Protein: Ankyrin repeat protein
Amino acid sequence: MSFFKRLFGKSKKEENKEEKESVLKLPWLESSENQWNVRLLDLRPLINSIFSASSDPKMAENAISYGGDDGTSFWGIKPNNNRTIPANLSLPIDTVLESGVLFTPNTMEHKWAIYFDGIYLIFIRSWLRQVFVIAKTSQKNNQLIIENIIGEFTENETPEFTIAVLNFLLISHAMGEVVPAPLPKELELDTNRAGTWAFSSYGNMAHLGIFDENFIPLPKGILRSHSLLHIAVAKSNMDEIERQVKKGTNVNLLAGDGLATLHWSIACESIESMDKLIELGADPNVRTLQGATPLMNAVQSNKIEHFNLLLQSGALVNAKDNRGFTALHRAAEMGHLEIVKILLSKGADKTVEAENHTAFSLARASENKEIVELLTDI
Structure:
């Protein structure tokens, strides 16, 4: 059985089809043309033109089977390959990286799922639902330190290549940043094969490629997980919410998407999760990475019950996000008349300007006539 078929579940016919579809002249980006100052292979013409397929329905099912999976079913599973290498990697975290989800695939073009059990990073080949690599970590001084790596991402790869792939997957998948993907040095003179290899290995997450396995780019952001607390909130699991907070998880922790648990609770139909979080000490004015408060998100979602509970719990009506917009700006633009009335009754300032807009100007631009009348000074 060929390496590609064993690893990716594709027949030789399918491989040939992909190779024909990907006969593109992949361009090079010289060191002066990119922020990393190294020569890179531009994979974008390829990843934007082909799609993954499998003749094995089980593998196709596996590839998109991770929705709602918190990863705990993979905890404690070791890779078939027990090769262990030391690693000298660290990534910035926000005080603590909590157990949970770092990346889950939602299309067949996503080739990896990544979870964290509090000690080990777990890398799962999505089509196979098989653990390929785990990495032991520790946390210190706002850094996740990768101490050693067990397993391989590809067959017979060097330790340097393993480290480079792990670093790439964490930054590109878990942190959502575009960085060069490691490519096998032996494919450097055959860029078409290198592109096909990159798509099979990384799917549509590899935009640029590099053939230097010692190249380890640094991230711009901070590594965060969708914690088990966030997932319990999304599932309205009251017992698990309480258990996670009582075991020490920060109730105001931001997830990988930059949202706190209270923001996640707004997606729930009932206010039960939100009420439980507030009872456990959640800050009603906690901010997202963009500076939005839960009240602002409740306004955007037109969730009146959640909105009222936040007001009762001390949410600030005139709080501004990082761009200067308030909850009233959002309500006025989106036409949420009832919410506008409540905000005004609670002292919302209709004169606040953000990027040359007031709530009035946004309501007028959206032709929300009743709201325009409420906001018009007489």
